[in-house]
Amino acid sequence: MDESRRLAWNVEAPGRLDAFLSGVLGEEASRGQVQGWIKEGRVQIGGLEVTKTSHKLRGGESVEVRLPPPPPPPGPLQAEDLPLTILFQDEHLLVIDKPAGLSVHPGAGQRDGTLVNVLLHHSPGALSQVGGEERPGIVHRLDKDTTGVMVVARSDRAHRELARQFHDREVSKRYLALSDGLPREKEGLIEAPLGRHPKDRKRQAVVELAKGRTASTRYVVEESHGRFGLIRCEPKTGRTHQIRVHLQFVGAPLLADKNYGRGRPERCTTADLGLPGEEQILLERHALHAARLEFSHPLSRERMAFEAPLPSDMAETLDAIRRVV
Question: Is residue 127 within 8 Å of residue 117, measured between CB atoms?
């Protein structure tokens, strides 16, 4: 879209201006973007500029919005020399232990500090291009604050075969989670379809099958201490935020999960666990770790399994949980 692009509608029913524009624009703009455009003077009602996002529409008005120009195309990604824990590598693939706080690939507003930037430094010219220029080597992903084992493709042939294994559910994944709450049964299979949260586009939720996608997670409570637990999870499908939403669904949300945790916290402290003494911060990200990944080598077909130990923040939190009476 360019600077001169304008869109106009006739209002049929009463309501808020920002809500009306969000509805007619749909996926083209978020409500936050719409509110910004209103405040910038990009919206007119009956030819008059309106800058109040909550302006009340009566019905029958004409509304026009002048869309902003698109951002300039991003430049090429830059290689960055950041620490990377490598568990295995050969000419076809790379297996790493991803740390917390590292986004897997660039996204809106972020062009550096991602795993892709690090991979470009570590393996210049030796990453698959199947996923495009923005995601070289990336076959699957972990959330920014989820730690653990990831496999990266260093050739297009390896990428296609690994992607097939993920798609056909031939890859075995095991996660460890620290929970604030325990499921009713010590072990079981959670089968609950997932889709976009009806009120928050950035979150997922358990929804009706017609509105989402099938999702399945097997779990075992490895340890329980008071209301807190160490839960082993083996997802059979790979939906966005699957384990986090499924554990919340059965009453065992992750510790310090700001999107799906109990009360939506952003950290976990010794006081949160009910431990005496001076309060100490234990976690400042959701407590989920990709502990094990098993797949077949994309060329030799040899079955391979890799494990990563609990990172220090989760290990220290687990030690604290074990002291809970």
Answer: no
